[in-house]
Specification:
The chain has nine helices and seven strands. It is α+β, with helices and mostly antiparallel strands. Strand 4 and strand 5 form a beta hairpin. Helix 5 runs parallel beside helix 9.
Amino acid sequence: MYSPGETDVASGGRVADELAQWVIPATGLVLVVLGVGYWAATDTATFDMAIASLPAALTAVVWFGARRVDREAAFGRRLLGWTLVGAGALGGLVLFAFIVQGADPVDSFPLLQFMMGVGSLSGLLIGTNEIRSVSAAQEAERARLEAELSKRELDRLEFLNHLLRHHVLNKMNVVHGYAELVREQMDDGFEKELTTIEEETEEVTELIENVRVLVNSMTLNIELEPIELSPVLEREVASLRETNEATVETDIPDGVTVEADGLLRYVFENLLRNAVEHNDAAAPRVEVTVTVTDHTVSVRIADNGPGVPDDRKDSIFHPEENGTQGLGLYLADTLVTEYGGNVSVEDSALGGAAFVVDLRRV
């Protein structure tokens, strides 16, 4: 929930950290300027002035590196604290030694400047190292929490997969079986209703199968392997011919191998089914052609259906755009992407749509 007070505090903390960051190089530069002023006012040798000012100058230089490390984290005040503590600690020790020995601090200013510069530089380095340690610990904790969350999500997906496969899918098969049994034992009085039941159960079964494959692709580590393309395509084409009256023509060369896994068949199963189920032509026709190059294999599935409007060609693979009917296309796109390939849709020379699957050739 939005809280103005918390937002103001956070904003104030960021401003304070940013200001603190700029005080660090200012501290080093002030020491350098004081050293230059002392050199100009006395007869101190230029080399001695340069040596005395070197640690303070390095403080400003190192700060730029530390700021790059701290680009995302807000550790400005902590860095400034370490810098001031280091400069104050060594400077205080030198002043204490001057007082004990009765030395004049003004005459020994180069030594004081040098030690304060060493202290500020040391403090800055210690603070930078601490920031790196804290950042590494935070990243490790964040990674642990993300891994734990991912494990929980995977467990839920695996449970969903088990539920779909062993309970919902089995029950849908029972419903479909009883519908067929009723058809065999009664007259034609409920032919339309029984046909509707069978079609709906087949559609739900298809949906469940797609969801199950999609869950498997998310929960299992996909390991790419050489898959011979022609047996996979021919098997899905034969299945389409058995279950539909569409004319299917193919041009599939033998001996072509692609990078994929055992789920590749679901890519072509969904694309071939899509070419027929949404085809409103009097005589549905599908052409499956394969084009091979040195590095890629393109499978083109064209139909003579209504086609896909240009304004939907990019969104047709998104299930939120197409509801459950677009799940098969989403599954195909998801799997092919995992294989390092690409799926696109364009206009077909047959008058409908042509889905092109580009895969990496082995």
